[in-house]
Amino acid sequence: MKALEDYYQVTKETIEMLEGEEWEKNREEAIQMLDRFILKREKLQLEIKPPFTDEDETLGERCIALNLRLSELMGIKKKEIAADIKRVKQQKRHNQKYANPYDAVMTDGFYYDKRK
User: Fold this and answer.
1) Would you report the helix, strand and coil content of the chain in percent, each value rounded to 5?
2) Mean pLDDT throughout 15-25?
3) Contact, 19 vs 77, CB < 8 A?
4) Where are the transmembrane segments (predicted)?
5) pTM of this prediction?
6) How close are the terminal C-alpha atoms of the chain, in Å?
7) What pLDDT digit, counting tens, does each position of 23-79 carry?
8) Taking the alpha carbons of 1, 49, 37, 83 in that order, is the dihedral positive or negative?
């Protein structure tokens, strides 16, 4: 079945891209490539229909194993991106406090006496 073979190949390419240096070199471009791979896999997945031969079933089992690896890698990359976003936000807050240290002065301990 051609769709299953293509699905296997696209999944394999996606894993190679996530494990390779492409991700580290240019993350924005790698994310766009990942998006294209996911869309291509989605279309191919809809084309996969029974009946399956023994070859197809063997390839399907390999696809399932690759899908598990792909899910694991995507989870790792998601955590990396979340950590980077958190780090950038913290640095932005730090830079704002450094630029204007009296912006958020604590008023703890002050009170107003209403008596005259």
Assistant:
1) 75, 0, 25
2) 88
3) no
4) none
5) 0.77
6) 91
7) 888 889 999 999 999 999 999 999 988 888 899 999 999 999 999 999 999 999 999
8) negative
Residue 85 or 109, more confident = 85
Q: Kindly list the domain boundaries of the chain, sorted by start residue.
A: 2-99
**Token reading at 88:** 């950038």
For the chain, the DSSP string reads: -HHHHHHHHHHHHHHHHHHSTHHHH-HHHHHHHHHHHHHHHHHHHHH--S---HHHHHHHHHHHHHHHHHHHHHHHHHHHHHHHHHHHHHHHHHHHHHH-TTTT---TT-------
| Spatial separation of the C-alpha atoms in residues 56 and 38, rounded to whole Å | 21
Tokens of 67: 């899908």
| pLDDT, tens digit (0-9, with 9 covering 90-100), for 73-82 | 999 999 999 9
